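Board work, copied verbatim: Thymidylate kinase
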Amino acid sequence: MRYACNFTISKALKFGVVAAQGSLKSSLNLKLPFKPSRNIHMENKENSSSRGALIVLEGLDRCGKTSQSSRLYKYLDEQGYSVESWRFPDRNTGVGQMISSYLANQAHLDDHAIHLLFSANRWEKRMLMEEKLRSGTTLVVDRYSYSGVAFSSAKGLDTEWCKAPEIGLLAPDLVVYLDISPEKAAERGGYGGERYEQLEFQKKVANSYLTLHDSSWKVIDATLPVEDIEEKLREIVLDSMTICQKGKPLSQLWPS
Ligand code: FDM
Ligand code: MG
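↓ predict structure ↓
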């Protein structure tokens, strides 16, 4: 599946500046001797709920998620946006360390128990996530609740049961699914020794992901050249950031 978009970055940015100039001029009734900056745009009353965007990258192991996340982060940062790069599982917390030893096959846990730990690992970051977004920081997140449900339901757990502990977490503004067949991903090599990095299991995960697509999803063909993926990603991410900057309310999982 390929993603096509007519909305260009330059159009989006231009619109932001023109809108800010127009509303400032009319409310202050004076000529601006300067080009309004993004800060001025955010202080405008109409944009009081302006915020950063929650951008999530999802896909099978070896689909290129992690390198695209870091390229995207670097680009946004260089452009002067307030942005942070996050990932789940966040292995730095106590819960994250339990998850990490499970994935390394050093700890053995019931499938339900590890599912709840992955979820708890997101809940322990939820408040910080909301604070960052409300303060105008965009978060580029490598895996989120969709990984949680796709991987656990691929083991045979009920999908609705898997979704339940995720209810109330912040819903992403955009989920980018980097689409690759399990066979092609495996051909790329570089599967580590972690628990889920096996072709037969990844096939089941791919099927689970298919059931999770919702209106926040965009699909990019992960077999395209890296630069092409990067360009498509930037375009849809900037589009989503523009909408959030204009004051899109935060919402919660799961969207209908
Ligand atoms: N994973 C990741 C889950 O099973 N549930 C989750 O909620 C999340 C976030 O953990 F195999 C799986 C997916 C992957 C593994 O992720 C570690 P990384 O991105 O390969 O570190
Ligand atoms: Mg991995």
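The chain has a mean pLDDT of 85.
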